[in-house]
Amino acid sequence: MLETSGPRELSEQIIQGITSPEIVDVVGIGSGIPGVIAAVNLARNIARVNIKSVTLDNISIPIYGNQEAIFFELSREPEVEIESIKNFDSKSEMEKAQLTISVHKGDRIATITNQLLFKLSRNTEVKIIASGFTIVTAVRAILQVATSGISREPISISGVVATSISRRDNPSKKIAALQVYLESGHETVYPSRHSEVLQQLIKR
């Protein structure tokens, strides 16, 4: 719906949706991913809306074709800390910096993909961070590494954090941000609802 409205309108839909069901599914596709993250963040800031799970995957539906997507399961239940994220964050600042890739405006998908493959060939885990529209570049590169079979070892998306950061040109305003954790030697484990949501989208 971001094609005809903005994050504020979508946040209203999220809050209205979560007043009755236990779980609300929200999916952002392609260039709409940053806007969906912004809408989820807004809803979380003003209401009892929490992230039950957030995952990345490719999707193919008639309107959009094959594109990358972000999948949110939202509920009113308290959020649960993900073990892989907790373990990464417990490392020293120097080690975390060495294992982190930042995506900047103008970075090519191929460049980020190669950086991920290079770091994961020498380390068991990597964190990638992006904000604003660089999120789309980051997600495309992540899904290339995790789902295309180009890596020597299986690569899993072990954790995804949707958040926001202050804009450099205007610190009083926030923009969507994404932190994704990847591990080598494992396959991505998706929530039980994931395949059901995919099927519902394909049928539309």
What does this structure look like?
- The chain is of the alpha+beta class and 204 residues long.
- It has a single domain (7-203), classed as 2-Layer Sandwich (Translation Initiation Factor IF3), CATH 3.30.110.20.
- It is 37% helix and 31% strand.
- The protein is built from seven helices and seven strands.
- It has helices spanning 7-17, 33-46, 83-89, 93-98, 109-122, 134-147, 194-203; strands spanning 23-29, 50-61, 65-75, 100-102, 125-131, 155-166, 174-184.
- It has a four-stranded mixed beta sheet with strand order 4-5-7-6, sandwiched between helices. It has a three-stranded antiparallel beta sheet with strand order 1-3-2, sandwiched between helices.
- The longest helix is centred in the N-terminal third of the chain and has 14 residues, at 33-46.
- The radius of gyration is 17 Å and the shape is globular.
- The mean pLDDT is 90.
Query: So, CATH architecture?
Result: 2-Layer Sandwich
Largest sheet properties = 4 strands, mixed
What integer value in Å does the Rg equal?
A: 17 Å
**Number of beta strands:** 7
- CATH 4th-level superfamily: Alba-like domain
Oligomer: single chain
Secondary structural class: alpha+beta
Helical content stands at: 25-40%
Query: What is the approximate shape?
Result: globular
What is the CATH C-level name? Alpha Beta
Distance between the terminal alpha carbons, to the nearest Å?
14 Å
As laid out across the biggest beta sheet, the strand order is 4-5-7-6
Mean pLDDT equals 90
Q: Helix count?
A: 7
| Helix-strand sequence | HEHEEHHEHEHEEH
Number of domains: 1
Strand content: 25-35%
Unreliable runs: none
